[in-house]
Design brief:
The protein has 12 helices and 10 strands. By secondary structure, it is α/β, with parallel strands linked by helices.
Amino acid sequence: MKKGKPRLQLPSYVRWILWVLLVQIILINISAAFYAHKLTHVYTDRALRSARPSKNIFVKTWRLFTGPRQAKSIITETPTFPFDTVVLKTAKGITIDAWYSKPDSQSRGTVILFHGITANKGMIVNEAHEFRSQGYNVMLVDYRAHGNSEGQTTTIGVRESEEVKLAYAYIAGKGENNIFLWGSSMGAVVVAKATAEYNLKPAGAMLEMPFASLQSHLQARARALGFQGIPEKPFSFFVTWWMGIERGFNGFRHTTSTYVEKVNCPVLMQWGAMDNYVRKYETEKVYNAIAAANKKLVVYDRAGHESLLQNDPAKWRIEVDRFLMANTK
């Protein structure tokens, strides 16, 4: 009888290494799944806003492994100028809350403002005040799961572009021809995405500190959270993967640099050189991909990921006023 070929026997240390790697991959995916859920879900538990970091090493390790819970942003600041509350509805019936205000003088157009992730429209009142003082109607919008809007799930800009479309349609329905879109951080991303996805025709778009992609944003989250278990890029890859599985979208396609390839309206893009959330390479990648010939990048040397208006009011006013003046019909 012919003897069968002998089975390949791996050295014991190689098998041990393979088992360790397998366990690590399983743990990484479990951790990423937890993070994906918590980064796209907001909680209304008020205790989260006053909770202090635990000193217990086991609790700290568990929270590092599973990710922090996010409290839904609560509006604490309202405009000092008169405004009306506007209620919009998404295709799935989610109520979107917005504020609309006219200037004291004759209107030159309308600026629709969109805030960043985990923020709300109360946090961009100062920008709205500036636009209004320049003679523009203003509309401030809360995304789903933010501020006064309904919902507990965010998609970090994937589906929030619907809010831009709804607000744009509301203002266009008033017969407005000069519609400008302004967005900060995730707000800039959803403005770019909505303009491309719904073929919007604004008079101009003002994009402040947009991240280049969902993965680059998650890398920034990893830096901010101090996640030391997985390096930034593997962390962002696995969490992006699990977000797509849990929320039903392809997170790897959520790239601002792709959206702006279809943005042909005039664009003013602004960014802070000390921004640790949105890096220089991201800013350059997005800016260079903008299809519009009429575009400008303004860098604030001493600004981080913050309100650029509050960081340098004089510079912000000059750049924004020039942009509006040049593109208002």
